[in-house]
Every structure is written in C-alpha cells, then in structure tokens.
Amino acid sequence: MSGRGANSRRRPMLKVIILGDSGVGKTSLMNQYVNRKFTNQYKATIGADFLTKDVEIDGKNVTTQIWDTAGQERFQSLGVAFYRGADCCVLVFDVNNSKSFDQLDSWRDEFLLQASPRDPDNFPFVVLGNKVDLEESRRQVSQKRALAWCQQKGKIPYFETSAKEAINVDMAFQTMAKNALDQEADVEL
Amino acid sequence: MDVVVVQCLIEALPMAISTSVSYDGRLLIATTSQSLLKYALSDSPSFDIRLADSRKDFAKKNVESMAVASGFLLAVDGGVVASFSLDSLTLREYIPATKGASLLAVCPAESREASENSLVAIVVKKRILIYSISLDGSMRCVKELATPERAHILVWLNANTIACAHPKRGYFTVALDSNSTTDLFKFNNSLFSAATGASAKIGIAILPKGQLLLTRNNSGVFVNSDGSPLIERDLEWSGPPDSITYSSPYVMALIAGAVEVRSLTTGGVVQRIDFPGALSMSVGGESLIHIASSNCIWRLLPVSFEDQIEHLIASNQFNEAQRLIEELEFSSEDEKVLFGWISSLHVFQTKKKIERGQISNIIRVRGLYAHHMFTVERKYEEAISLLSELRASPIDIVNLFPQFSLLGPSSDPPVTDKTALATLKDYLLSQRQILSKLRRLHQRPNNLPWNQIPPPSTSPLTGTTAATIAAVSSLFSGSDHGVPDSIPIPENMIANADDALFLSSVVDTTLLKVYLLVNEGLVGSLVRVENFCDIQEAENALKQSRKYRELIDFYYGKGLHRKALENLDEPDAIMQYLHRLNIVAHVDLFLEFSEPIFNRNVEEGLNIFTERYEDVPLKTHLRIIDFFERKSAQLETRYLEYLIGNLDSERPEFHDRIVLLYLQRLVEQLTRSESPVDATESVEMLFVDAEAEASSSDFLLLRKKLVLFLENSKFYRPERLISLFPDDVLLEEKVVVLGRLKMHRESLFICIEKLANFNLAKRYCEMHYDPKDPTSSHIFVDLLSLLLGPRTPTTSAAQKDQIIPMSDIIQYLIRYGTFMHGTAALSMLPDSLPLACLVPFMEKTLQTGQFSSRSGMLAVNLAKMEHMHIQDALIQSQSALVTLDEEKLCARCSKRIGNSVFACYSEKLLVHVFCMSK
Predict the structure, then answer these.
(1) Same domain, B475 and B554
(2) Which residue of B has its CA nearest to A82?
(3) Burial class of residue B650 in the structure, from the number of CB atoms within 10 Å of its CB (0-12 exposed, 13-18 middle, 19+ buried)
(4) Is CATH 3.40.50.300 correct for A4-188?
C-alpha cells in the first residue's frame, strides 16, 4: 500500500532525445516547445544540453526531460550512458534538405544500438519534418515520402513542423510523451 | 606457501654460540668459550662459507651482545663495552664508563646522515648512553638518557628516537635531543595487565610508514610511533614470540623453536619453519633474517616475489597475489590507488619510479584474477569490469567466451549466461565508442585543433606519441558538457591505425553475434550503420540465424552489392535494391540483375534505368544502350526516347540511332502487312501538328513520330541517314531528310513524281524557301518546272491520272509568284496557256518588282542625304579658329605648343600631334 502511494506521488520523468543532422532545427524545436521562443540565428549546439517541461498527459502529470544533441557530433562520441534510459527518441529532418532525410535511417539505427532497448522494433520514435514554413518550391522531401518511411519503420508518428511558426510543435511533443508513457506502461505490465 | 627458504650457514658447531653478528658477507660468532670466529660468505657464483679467521679468548667474559659500526666490532663483554678492529679482530679498548651495560644497538645507517659519525646506544641499568664512533674508532659519550626502567629491548626508530621495551613497564620511546620519555604502551592500563611479570616475552618490530608492532606474549598490537594505537589491526601469535622482526612484507616471530611468517595485512600465517633449538633471531647482513641456536646458524632467503606470485596464481589466490604485489612495491596509499589507472598518462608523469615490469606484473595478476572470477566464480560483471579497468584488449575479453573466441574452436562449453552476454554487449558498445574516436584520430592526425594539444614540455613522453596521447585524453574531456563520458583511450591502444581497424573488426563482429543471441532486433541496426564486422563471419552468423534481410543490408553497407543481389530472387526485392544503388558506379549490376524484373514487367525494368538518375556520364548511357540493343529494339528505342526526350541529349549518335530504329520498325511492319499504305488523307495528318487521333493505326502513329522527330531534332546527321531510307516507301519521311540536306530538287521530285502530292510539295517550299540562300532561293521555280516539265518514264500509270490540273498550277503561280523569278517562271509556261489566266500573276509580279525598285530608290536618296549632312559637319569643324600664344599648353604633356605641329579637339583642346599619336 505504502509503496503504491509513494509511486503515485512521484512525478514520472520521461527522457527524450532529439536527434538529426546539424541545422535541421533540433534546438529551435526544443526552444519553441519549452520556451515558446524562436530565433533565426543559427548557433551550433556543443555536446548535448537539456531542458525540462512539465506536461499533463491523460490527466497525469509528467516531467519531460528533453535532451538536445549536436548534429555535428558523430553519434558514438556521446556515449552509451547518454542514450541509456531514453523513453523516446525524436528524429528531426529538414523537409527542404533531402540529405537530412536520408540520414534518418542511420540516426535511428545508431540510437537503437546505443540505447539498446529491449524491444527495438517497438521503441517509441517520433519523426518531425521541420521548416515547413519555407516556400513550397524549396521543398525536397514530400510528405508522402516521409510517411512511407515512417510506415516502413514500424508506424512511427510523423509531424510536419515549423519551429519558427510554432506549427505542430506542441502536438508532436504531446504525442511523443503519450507514446513514451504508453510504452512504459507496457513494460511495467 | 613458501615465502622464505632456509639456508644453513653453520651446522653443529662444536662450540656453543653465545651471540653472532653478520655484515657485508662476514659472519662473526662469539662462543661461550670466549672465542671469536669469523666466517666469509659468498653468494656468487655459488654459495660458499669458510672460516676466515678466529681468536681465542678475545673477551674476558661471556659476550652477550655484539654490533658492528664504522668498521669496528662492539661487544658487551662481561657488562663492559669493548671495541675491536674488524679487520684484525684485535682489541682496541674497553670503555669503563659503560660498566653495567646489558645491551647495545647501533643506529642504522639509513637513519642518519652519511657524514655523521655512527651512533651506538648502550643500555646501562636505567640509562641509555649514546656514543659516537668516529672513523678512527675513538668513542665518545655524547648523551646520557634516563629511562624509567632498564630497557630489555632497544630499537632505533630514527637518529633521534629510540624505542625501548620493558616486560613490566611496557614500551616507550626516548628522544635524544630532549631526553624525554614517551610511553607507547603502558602495561598497567592495558589489555596486557593480567599477564604482568618479568617472565613476559616482549618484542618490537618497526613497520613501514612509522608504525610499530608491539608484542607481549601471544598478543601483538599496532601503534604509530607517537603511541596512538591503530585499533583496526591486531595480531595473535600461536605462542609467545622470543623475538619479532619485520621483513617486507611480512612479520616474523621466533616462537618456541620455530619461525612463524605472517602477512601484515591479513595477519594470517603464511609459512612456518621449524628451527630446533633456535634461541635468537636478528636482521643481519644483506637485511636477511638470521636465526641462531646454540650450535647452528641459519638465514632466511626470501623466495623471489615472482615465484611467490606464481605460486599464488597457481592456487587461484589472486587476491593474495595482488595484495603481495601491492605490499611489496608500493607502500603509500595514493600509489595503490594508481593501480587502477596504471595506463593513464598521469601515472607516467608522476610515478616514473614505478617500473614497467612491476606494473605489467600487477596487470597480469589482476587479469588472471579476472579470468578466474569469470570462468570459475562466474562473476561476469565484476570480471569484465576489472578487465576493462585494466585496459585489457577487447580480444582478451572476447576470448572469455569460447563461442566467440578468436583462438578457434574450443572444447569449453559456450558461456550462455544472460548477464554475461549483456555485460559483454555493454562492454563491446563502449569499445565501439572508443575505437570510433581512435579511428578518427588516425584518419586525421593533422587536423587536431591546436588548443587540444598541450605544450610538449609538460609531457614526459616524446614525439608524436605524447602529442597523440595528450590529444586523445583531451578529446575525451570537455566538449560533452553534462554528459558523463570521457572514457580515455588506453595508451596501449593508440598503437596504429591497422590495430584500430582490427580491434574494430573483432568488437563489431562479436557484437553482431551477441545481438543474434540476446537482442535480434538490433542486428539490423548494427549492420546498417558503419561497422567493421568481418565479412565472412558476419555472413555465416547471419545466414545461420536466417537473417536474410539483415544480410542484404550488411552487404549493402559493405558495398558487396553483387553478393546481395545474388541472394535476392524476388523481382521486387531486386528492384528495391537496385533503386538504392548508383547506376554510374554499378551499371554492370543493373544490367546483370535486371533480368527478372524485365521478365515480370518491362515498364518496371525500364524504370530502373530511367528513374531518379541525373548526371550519368555518356559511357554509362552507351553501356545501357548496348545492353538494350541486344535485348530488344523496342527497349532500346524507349531508352533513347528517354535520353533525348527527358534528358535532352544532343549526341548525334543517339539521334541517328533512334531514327534508324523507327525506320527499321516501319519497314518491318510494311513487309509484314499486305496493304500497309493507308489512305492519302491519313498521310496528310503526318504533317499536321495536331495530336494523333485515337483511330490512327500504330503504323501511322509511328510514322508521325518519326516525321516529327526528323523535323524537330537538330542533331541527327541527314547525310548519313539518307542512304538508309528505302526508295519506294516512307517517302514523306525521306523528303524531310532531303530538305535538311537542302536537296530540294530531289525532294520536290519525290513529292510530285512519286507521291503526286502537290500540297506536300507546296508545304515543303514554304518551309525551305530562303531568298538569301542560293540553293533555297529558287525552290518555287524548281517546283514549277517540275509541274510543267515532262513526266519521267518511271511515273506509274496511277500517278499519271493524278496529273496536276493546269488550274492548280495557275493558282500556285498566283499565290507564290512573288517568291519566283518572274522571267524564269514565264519562260517555263507552255505557249498554249491563255495570257488572260496570267494577269493576276503578272500584276503581282510587277507590283513586287516596282515595290522593290521604289524602295531601293528611297534608300539611295536617304543615304545621299545623310552623306551631305556629314560633309557639312566636317566643314564646320575644320573651319574652327584656334588662337595660339605662348601660354597654350598641350593637354597631354603640359608643354608649350610653340611652333610644333598640333591637333585640335572639338573642345578647343590642343595637343601636340606627337602626343596625340601616343
């Protein structure tokens, strides 16, 4: 009895890791979500950094700890410890940059290797196609193509976002938190 | 375990030994019969002992205590100290002031300055006299210390402190400078209090780090030299020791005719040796322990520590072995801490004195211990973490698992424990991380940022290795703020790029196998990212586990596309695979493996070659064309259409080839069909720009395609193609090519004589008329002459019926008259033609003539006008007046014009003619 009481009082913490090529807008997305701020200035992230935000999911209070990583960093330099215990991984690409989309595969694979989840096929990922605010003519990755990829990788939820215009950002992170929570519940069962 | 072996020096001496002293390869024995025997010992080449000298009656009474100092022998002879020359063994002097002496002890050489005189402490009742012995042997009393009781045991702690023991009072120290006594341990308030009495056996042993072991009867306690107890340790002997001493790293006690050797740390008995009748134990020459009975003397030779360690290892006592090494080589705590980090740069900087041999010894012992833990105790996590702490090579750790071992097939059962495999997996992942950094480092040793290379002077190592190590260690610090990482690259792993690759291969290959056992879901991820898995091994492992999809991904990652494709048979899978490949680099594979796709669906097959490729070089295009040529003309056509239509290729070869292909197909269809030529009205549509009607036959559609192509393409070579056209069919197409060659007469001849298609001829003339081109300026006249000229004999009867009526010719004349040379046309007309018919033609021709002559005149006059205007302007300019005086300067060289020839610009600027020409 007392154990359960203690459990319910403890606010669950979700560790979320944002990955993607450099310059796709990982830091901007995080800032938009947590601080509701956007800047056009590009500043490369060094190493890794995190922000936390408390959210309510299905009536449950949850703290999300969002780890932003440097896209330039080659994956392995951050180390296993960094990825271990992640509850969700957000893969970000720039819809106006085909190469950043092509790299999703290797970001996902490297993440799985480092985080070593017990059930890699059902690990909660979310894919964000960012920078949809730019003009349509610059777009290189169609929604169809992105959706096809997500479908193929095990029905990963896909959102087209704009950190600048705050399009879909809240919804994406909300979905992510929900999926991560569901996954956790599954594991507990 | 044997830590010492016994060597007998003197056996069954016929006289009784009173006391003995050994120094520098000599052994002096004083007997109860007041004789002095001097033996010489040598250890090399082999042990040898012989009597070197002897003196009878060297002392007056029984000698109880002897010591050697500054080349002199001191002996307590009947309660008085006497000194003898060591070399000659002759008496130097008796020191009367020492009357009543019971004990003497020389201050050890290492406790005093080399330049100072030797000090000897002599116990005389409740006093300690300190004598200084100068080099010439003269002894002078320098201090007289009072002690609470007569010391039974006296030990020099340092040049200023003497520790004493008294069986009733306890242990105390006396300071030379202050003559003050400090109790180390007083019996009346101690745990010894129950056993007070003069019979109690007491002892003092000096341990490292200023600690002391005090014994009384069976018990021993450890204290600091200031008397503060070290409560955490205690020692119980098996009996009351007659004497105790410390011989690194053991304490030894002589107990009832036996020597007990104990470990200082555990207190456990390490070895026991019986010495029947042994009476005393002391530290003698070469710091060896000497044991004496009444007629024998032995000494204890320590077993070499390597042998001891081997022995411990052989009996799986790894902790003992390790402790032994630690006790032996390093006495201070911080040095011990360093064991775990032996390979870190820091150690080499600060602890140069630690020899590599010792370090490798420790590593070896701990490594063996880890192996033992792993294989026998099954403490997998601890073992692997110990090994990685020791910076063991990943190969060693992999070899712990017989199923992954690099040593080849083993009879040992595989390690299938889940924890073991999970630990191995984590270990391999961390190694992957280290190796990836290492590889990057090797890839670009010159690209390291400068701020990551510390100044070379701070490093004890030299050259590039030092810089590399330093750079490596700094790679792992900083940058990743907030991220616990920083696994330093072990120094021994920096070796070279080849080693790094080999280790990467071992690590990745093993990781793959581990994943196959513990988490199959990650196998795909591993083979898709950059990995160094051994190809053969990975192939076998994946095939065995039927991971075919992963196998294909693995091949893809390794660039083994042929192998991958050979393992695929589903057209869809092949198609997907080929879609991922670059056609330029792998055109051979495309050609070789596209067969099944073509067999299923030609469109899909073609798509492989035409989708998503840009910037494909000509060479590749030619390969593909060649391939299609052998496959089917239709595919070749389709591909050429793609090249020309979609990629806008301007290669004449392609354009020629496609024309040829169209032609071939048309001819083929003609020969196959009985009445191929459609109605003329259908032929008309060949040249209509409108979309082909749905009702049109394939044949006609193709013809239209060809005509369109011939008319629009600028890149085919008509001079080559013309000979390929048949003489009697597909003439419309031929006409287009002839037109391109400007062979207008031939074209028109075909139109009129062979096709009897006046409209086609007119259209042709309209298209090709060019008044500026001598070959094309008179085509309308040419056509007229054809229309009016005699029919050639070859003209068929059918065509004769279609002789163009004169009225049409007149219409033609009227319509195109302006593009004809009037007189040339008129001269051709048959005389029978009524002139009236020609009126419109004449009118038009005359009008045109007049128009052109009038426009000509107009142009002439306009030109004349312009000429006059210019002349006028010239005269105006030339009549300009320039005044020249002394001050007029040349605008160029700023010198006076004077009398030189000058020129004048319109702005009245004057320059020398000479300057102007420059």
Answers:
(1) yes
(2) B483
(3) exposed
(4) yes
| Residue ending a domain, choose from B626, B649, B672 | B649
Residue-level pLDDT at B901: 85
The reply to whether B717 falls in a domain is: no
Q: Are residues B359 and B473 in the same domain?
A: yes
Same-domain pairing of B553 and B635: no
Percent of chain B with pLDDT over 70: 83
Domain of residue B461 covers: 348-481+488-558
Is B694 a domain residue? Answer: no
As a whole number of angstroms, the distance between CA B472 and CA B456 comes to 14
* Whole-angstrom distance, CA of residue B643 vs CA of residue B614: 11
8 Å CB contact of B483 and A110: no
Show which of B649, B684, B705 is a domain's final residue: B649
Q: Is the pLDDT of residue A79 over 70?
A: no
Tell me the backbone φ, ψ of residue B256, rounded to 5 degrees.
Answer: 45, 60
pTM of the predicted model as reported, rounded to 2 decimal places? 0.58
Residues B427 and B513 in one domain: yes
Query: To the nearest whole angstrom, how far is the Cα of A1 from the nearest Cα of chain B?
Result: 32
To test the contact with chain B by mutation, choose from A69, A72, A80 the residue with the greatest count of B C-beta atoms within 10 A, namely A80
The span from the CA of B650 to the CA of B796, in Å, is: 41
Question: CA of A102: which chain B residue's CA is closest?
Answer: B580
- Longest pairwise C-alpha distance within chain A: 61
Residue of B nearest to A114 (CA): B429
Distance CA(B280)–CA(B20), nearest Å, equals 10
Is residue B422 located within the same domain as residue B525?
yes
Nearest CA in chain B to A103: B529
* Residues in chain B within 8 Å Cβ distance of A77: 433, 436-437, 480, 485
Residues of A with CB under 8 A from a CB of B: 46-50, 74, 76-82, 105-106, 108-110, 112-114, 116, 118-121
> Does residue B157 form part of some domain?
no
Q: How many domains does chain B have?
A: 3
B509 in any annotated domain: yes
* Statement to judge: residues B473 and B520 lie in one domain: yes
- pLDDT tens digit string along B246-268? 887 788 999 988 999 988 777 78
Task: Nearest by CB to A47, from B426, B483, B524: name it.
Answer: B483
Centre a 10 Å sphere on the Cβ of residue B307 and count the other Cβ atoms it contains.
13
Q: Report chain A residues whose CB lies below 8 A from the CB of B429.
A: 80, 113-114, 116
Are residues B433 and A105, on separate chains, in Cβ contact within 8 Å? no
Examine the predicted complex and report whether its ipTM is higher than 0.85. Answer: no
In chain A, the residue whose alpha carbon lies closest to the alpha carbon of B529 is: A106
**Cβ-defined contact of B433 to A50 (cutoff 8 Å):** no
Q: Where are the domains of chain A?
A: 4-188
Give the model confidence (pLDDT) of B815-872 as tens digits: 887 777 777 777 777 777 777 877 888 888 888 889 989 999 999 999 999 999 999 9
Average pLDDT over residues B785-794: 65
Cβ of B426 under 8 Å from any chain A Cβ?
yes
Q: What is the pLDDT of residue B861?
A: 95
Which tokens in the block code for residue B559? Answer: 């660039």
**Same domain, residue pair B492 and B636:** no
Residue pair B547/B555 in contact by the 8 Å Cβ criterion: no
Substitution target from A65, A116, A152 for chain B, most B beta carbons within 10 A: A116
B711 CB within 8 Å of a chain A CB: no
Q: How far is CA B79 from CA B75, B94, B134, B762, in A?
A: 9, 11, 23, 155
Chain B residue with minimal CA distance to A104?
B529
Same domain, B604 and B522: no
Q: Which range, of B95-99, B276-280, B772-776, B857-861, averages the lowest pLDDT?
A: B772-776
> Cis ω on the peptide bond leading into residue B45 (within 30° of 0)?
yes
